[in-house]
Write the structure tokens for this entry.
Amino acid sequence: MISFDYTLLIPVLPLLMFLTLGIGGHRLKPLMAGLLGSAAMGVVTVLSYLTAIQYFFVGGGMGADGYVALIPFQFTWLAFTDTLRITLGVMLDPISVMMLVVISTVSLMVHIYSLGYMKGEKGFQRFYAFLSLFSFSMLGLVLATNIFQMYIFWELVGVSSFLLIGFYYRKPSAIAASKKAFIVTRFADFGFLLGILILSYYTGTFDFGILTQPETSPVASMAGVSFMGLSVVSWAMVLVFMGGAGKSAMFPLHIWLPDAMEGPTPVSALIHAATMVVAGVYLVARLFVVYHFWAADIQEVIAWVGAFTSLFAAVIAITQHDIKRVLAFSTLSQIGYMMLALGVSGYGGAEGTGYMAAMFHLFTHAMFKALLFLGAGSVIHAVHSNLMTEMGGLRKYMPVTHITFLIACLTISGVPFLSGFFSKDEILVAAFEHSKVLFAIEFLVAGLTAFYMFRLYFNVFWGQERHYHHTPHESPWVMTVPLMVLAFASVFSGYLPFTHLVSPDRLPFEVHLHWGIAIPSVLIGLAGIGLAWVLYKRPSRVPDRMAAAMGGFYTTVYHKFYIDEVYLFVTRRVLFNLVSRPISWFDRHVVDAFMNALANVTNGVSDRIKGLQSGQLQMYAATFAAGVIGLVLLALYYLGSA
Amino acid sequence: MNILHFLIIIPVLTLAGVLTSRSLKGVRWVSAVGMFAQLLVAIAVMVTYMGLRKGGDSAEMVLMESHTWFASLNIHYTIGVDGISSAMILLTAIVMFAGVFASWELEYLQKEFFVSLILLVTGVYGFFISLDLFTMFLYYELAVIPMYLLIGIWGTGPKEYSAMKLTLMLMGGSALLIVALFGIFYGAADGVHTFNLLELGQHPMPVEMQRFIFPFAFLGFGVLGALFPFHTWSPDGHASAPTAVSMLHAGVLMKLGGFGIFRVAMYLMPQAAQEQAWIFIILTSISVVYGAFGAIWQKDLKFINAYSSVSHCGLVIFGLLMMNRTAMDGAILQMISHGLMTALFFALIGMIYSRTHTRQIHEMGGLMQVIPFLAVVYMIAGFASLGLPGLSGFAAEMTIFVGAFQHGDLFHRVATIMAISAIVVTAVYILRVVGILLLGPVKNDHFLHLKDATWYERLSTLTLVVAVAGVGLYPQWLYRLIYDSLGPVAEKLLAAL
């Protein structure tokens, strides 16, 4: 039996680093803080790789029938009743171990890269403190043993994301973006929390191990209860998915992600491309058994939401000019792929291809999307602009960035034998077997993806050379080495034997490349690249004319279908002006005015009657006499009548 | 000697010390030392309590002592504590300790200020240890009276108006309580006439009597707990009150309301509580959302906090009304959590105000650049308020929600979902303030020269931050402590169902 006790250090080290840098960081030299943070992350990476090797390849995780969930450490954080308790702990199973590798790799690369990228920035130590906080929260999230622990860390990644998006806190746009990200995801978490509460009410547990047992899960007993025509499991799971959709920026909760690009670029690479935004995918995968067996209707919803988002975001990506926003929409689109794959997946053997593919794509996507963002950061670092209209011809000045960026573009476009090719192909196979319409959508998106990525690539590295303030130069090695490492991962991670590692029933299975689907999807990808070549390789006016020809449609897409405006309308006009403001008014002018009126009436009455207490003896005597006469008359009247 | 006596003796000695000190320095240090000693006593009470429980003492109240005071009416000076009162005493001590340091730089009549403040807090301690309703009521009034002076003399803005309003409304609550008090006295079964809480619990009132008396007791305490629609003293009162008074008032005094509701109203009148709960559940679930939406529109920092308190304290009473052990436990955790973080907020607002001389958020901005320490602490307080895990608010709110969800019927469900929805609105108003006040460019050039926190300000705020984080990081021991002490009232409520 291999001991996994050391895995506790994986989340704890970044936490300690956060406390160290957060409290004492300003006393350290910036470089020192950065190196400390990176060193801690380096140790975490080594431990994560060790865990993965021991779990997958040395047999530490293999039980009698398939991989087992190991819990090397846990303690009770809050026990509501004897059965309903929140524990904090470390759970190792195939997907959490895989996530450890993803998170630690990307996080370490970002830590190292930022040594160069953030050099000289005010608040360098704070930046590393927040990165550590984020890494801690994200690692805690994936290692969660129960759904409430996940919710706790879910909130913590949310707040780290808030802090990092708003890192440049003097910039109003960054503040607005960080607020938006937090509030939109908070709204989604409201659903998540309700889902958890419903689930725990019926099952009496938060524990993943118990909830996701296909045979013995207490969820089965709640499937018969229904509310408003839908089983309560479906209610709970759709609400939980709402949380996942918020974090993973699925339509219609996607609006925060493009704005989140206000954060420093390494942050976008880490949080808003590789790790946090896939938390929703991870959540669905974590509860996959529950979705698949007892909330199949919601699983279908997930597939469609994923498919729609992937198409919708890909269309928008074509029109954007800010390179980070193109990448953000691309991220949305790719996460849509993963959601779709989970939505169409079955359970057991090759049926579980979709589930495996989602995790596979999550892995490869993390590598190449982090690479794209870091590459974009390197470009932005050189030309001091985010707009591709201010870039062009950079291949000569930045050879390493150029080549690694090209590799990433080829990978995401699904060019054969790079990692994206394998993972995307599996998703398309799974979609094809479930629904032809979904397959058609994703097939189209594959073409769009290749097109918008190469539109970006040609615009930045080819096209017209711009007038730069100073000649762009290649970034320092602390920035290019991470690019090379990630490029290596982008190329080769497709050869990881995922079917032997990850599956819904945790049993290894075999699938083979489906050439009937792979060949057309490669072709449409190449077509997309070709079209981009024609339109953007050389400076040309054709794209502008095409945009003009499309008129209103183009503008609508460019403005992201005006969905932000709809949200603004609902929040500003409706909630602020029609709810909050009237409430404030009501409180002051009705509730409080009533209390004041009580006081005023009391005052007024006393004012009227205070004249009676005049102090004049004659007046008192007269009143006294009148009273006596009145009483005597009254007495006589009653005595007489009796 | 019973350790509980020290809770009254030390403030009285401190009072004497303050009255006899000749210098400002003396006044400050005597208060500080006194309140530090009081903090130690509060810790000792907690330790003693836990030791007794561990030793197997399973009495409802421990450290009890009783002296006949007014024999003809059967009034006694009866004191004793359980886990909940020990926790509330500790809360009071922490807030008061922080409050003294937050008032370090008071500008005039310092001696009189500290005298009133300590008098007030003596009343609070007395309230928490009393088991005789009459004594309890007396201590309560002792706390309310100095409040009038503290706001009326040392306040800001329309202070006379606010002081009068607050006092009158709280006195209105007291008037209801007096009725309840005598109803309880004469209503107890078996012809028992006593104010002793435990004895009254043995002789429950007839149901008809309960129905009549319960609303008086509930509303009487509810006014103090800022129950909608009797909360309007809170925005004005807090806005005008000086820093330490706001801290103590929002932090502790408002909790007397929730404390009284379960210790007196629900404990003695469980049937009526079960019957009438629905009305108040509606009121409180409204109040949670109403307060949060109200806060979005405010421009004055203290008003924002006052409305936020309406929302958070609404949740306290909401949790109590769910009447199961988990939810009630959450409600008490929320009292403690809210007490700590709201005290922190008011301390910070006072410190910011003393620098910028304004509380209008739009006149400030970019404070993170000029007073980073205070700004960071403000942010932590904000995160605690919006329920970030690891800080106290999260554990408390989640406990209430989990408890409330144990009711399966539609009415409770809808009310609970409404209450939970406030977590979103809370995020909106907290981040709005953080965005406008702390982040962004510095709006006013005068602010560029502001000094960051002094040592006493650091001490004051860090005490509270540590407490907030302590409760938030490991809520289990507090949860357990409260859970065990909730047994008697929870059993009565359950039996009354």
Remarks:
- The longest strand of chain A covers residues 70-79.
- Chain A touches chain B through 47 residues (CB under 8 Å).
- Chain A has three domains: 1-191+257-288, 321-558, 564-641.
- The beta strands of chain A are 62-63, 66-67, 70-79, 85-92, 226-227, 230-231.
